[in-house]
Design brief:
By secondary structure, the protein is of the alpha+beta class. About 35% of the residues lie in helices and about 30% in strands.
Amino acid sequence: MKIFEPQERSPMLLKYLLDVWERSVRATHLFLSDQEVCQIRQYVPQALCSVQHLVVAANGSIPAGFMGVEGKTLEMLFLAPEERGKGLGRELLQHGIDVYSVDHLTVNEQNPDARGFYEHMGFRVYRRTALDGQGTPYPLLYMRRIDR
């Protein structure tokens, strides 16, 4: 698996990443309705275009996962469902820690697998909000990396 920051965020790359995003969300964000996933999906291309560092993991030319980093904050990390549990998330996050000094992230409280993964990677919850960034009742956990 090759991990890289693409030189260009082409329409084809964005199409592949949007597909990874949607399949990942449907597999892991079971608290979201189909309508909510479709609504959020409309904003994903803009997020992919505007995040400071977009990092892609691909097997050949097809992306299997990606993350977005802004400053030292992990803004997004999504994997194709068939890649979960194979170490790709760890590789991506470790790359973010090593290259971009990632030390903060936010995760949905209703995504316990993601929280457990981030805790395994050395992050701890320091704050909780009852609402997400859109004001909907999906609690967020703010996590920071604790030196091991």
